[in-house]
From TrEMBL:
Keywords: Coiled coil, Nucleus. Residues 131-165 form a coiled coil. GO terms for cellular component: THO complex part of transcription export complex. The lineage of its organism: Eukaryota, Metazoa, Ecdysozoa, Arthropoda, Hexapoda. GO terms for biological process: mRNA processing. InterPro entries: Oxidative_Scav/Glycosyltrans, THOC7/Mft1. The keyword Coiled coil applies. It is found in: Nucleus. This is THOC7 domain containing protein.
Length: 208
């Protein structure tokens, strides 16, 4: 048997390192020696018997101890598994919390920007004149505009009258010009007749 096989066998027999393999070897040797012995006295046989029972009790105790240790180890592994699952769930919860906090941070930044815009708008509104004052100024401007409209109508009416008067004046001047031209033509005609009469009679016309 090779050294490796011996080590494997030793680990199988004495897995927890309590010396069970040596104890089993001692029991085996003692049992063989006791079975092959024919000269031992009853007292020696009883001592050997008690020794074997003690060794077997120790082996039984070791087996029960190993079983209990295995059970405890299994239970600990289950507890470790539960703890691991709990930690994994906590990690998931922490990741979800971080994600939620990031979203909350984004919302907080948006709220802050909106709040700043609101403050600027409120400041701009506060710098504007009051509504009552604005309405009064609007009424004053409307009244002033109404007065200007009346003045415009008056000036347009006055201008229209001036245009009509100018038209009448131009028309009268044209008629007067025609009358003057007609009078001048008549005078020229009369003067021409008088000159012809004077030339034919040799008498100067009487002055008026």
């Amino acid at each position: 048997m090779s050294d490796e096989d011996i080590i494997k066998r030793k680990l199988l027999i004495d897995g927890d390192g309590t010396g069970d393999d040596r104890r089993l070897n001692v029991i085996s040797k003692t049992l063989k020696k006791w079975a092959n012995s024919t000269e031992d006295s009853p007292l020696e046989n009883q001592a050997t018997h008690d020794k074997l029972l003690a060794q077997l009790s120790l082996c039984e105790y070791s087996v029960k101890r190993s079983q209990l240790l295995t059970k405890t180890t299994t239970k600990q592994l289950e507890n470790y598994k539960k703890i691991q699952e709990k930690f994994e769930q906590q990690i998931i919860d922490v990741k979800e919390s971080i994600k939620q906090n990031k979203e909350n941070l984004i919302q907080a930044k948006i709220w802050k920007q909106n709040h700043m815009m609101y403050d600027l708008l409120a400041q701009s509104i506060a710098e504007q004149p009051a509504r009552k004052e604005t309405n009064q100024r609007l009424l004053n401007l409307q009244a002033e505009l109404k007065e200007l409209h009346k003045e415009k109508e008056f000036l347009e009416h006055k201008l229209d009258m001036r245009r009509k008067q100018f038209h009448v004046l131009v028309s009268s001047a044209s008629k007067l010009q025609v009358m003057l031209e007609e009078a001048e033509n008549s005078y020229n005609s009369i003067s021409s007749v008088d000159n012809n009469v004077t030339d034919s009679t040799g008498v100067e016309p009487m002055s008026e």
